Amino acid sequence: MGAEKRQGGEAGRAANSALVRDFGLLIKAATRLELRIDAALRQRCGISHTMFEVLIRLCRQEGEGVSQRQLADDLTLTSSGITRLIDRMEETGLVRRVPSPTDRRSVLVEPADRGRTAFVDAAAVHAEVVERYFVEPLSQADYTRLTAALDRIDKSLDDTGQ
User: Fold this and answer.
1) Cα(70)–Cα(108) distance, integer angstroms
2) Which of 54, 56, 79, 135 is buried most deeply by CB count within 10 Å?
3) How far is CA 122 from the centre of its chain?
């Protein structure tokens, strides 16, 4: 019983550590913000946040299609997950698949006219939610420090090769 009690105490300390708590706050805030964005986009634009993320990538590279593989990598989706998502988006007229001009075996995804229009509308909704829940709660100085810190974290993750 002594070993079990000791392990329970160690587990409790580990679960209540500052690193676990702080990272949990980051994940909880990001998840709750993502849920707010998704709900607003679904309600006001008829698209999911993931669809919006696809449209961001497609509209950034105007005139250039993007491979489903690249979209899957960018959005951390599986090949089958991105295929199903692009199928749904194609069915609703948001995107279209086109042959790659450089590789006959490849298909690229590009925004359809309806997708561009939906993206512009959704970008305004996205901006409203982000402004309200991500920007407004912080002072300008805190916001600047937060975004700089997030950028450094992102860069450190790129450097690890993972």
Assistant:
1) 10
2) 54
3) 14
pTM of the model: 0.83
E strand or H helix at 44:
helix 18-45
Q: Are strands 66-67 and 107-111 parallel, antiparallel or unpaired?
A: antiparallel
Distances in Å between the Cα of 51 and the Cα atoms of 2, 48, 111, 131, 159 are: 53, 5, 11, 20, 28
Residue 51 has pLDDT above 70, yes or no: yes
As a whole number of angstroms, the distance between CA 137 and CA 130 comes to 10
The answer for 127, left when phi > 0, alpha when psi is -120 to 50, beta otherwise, is: alpha
140-155 pLDDT, tens digit per residue, is 999 999 999 999 999 9
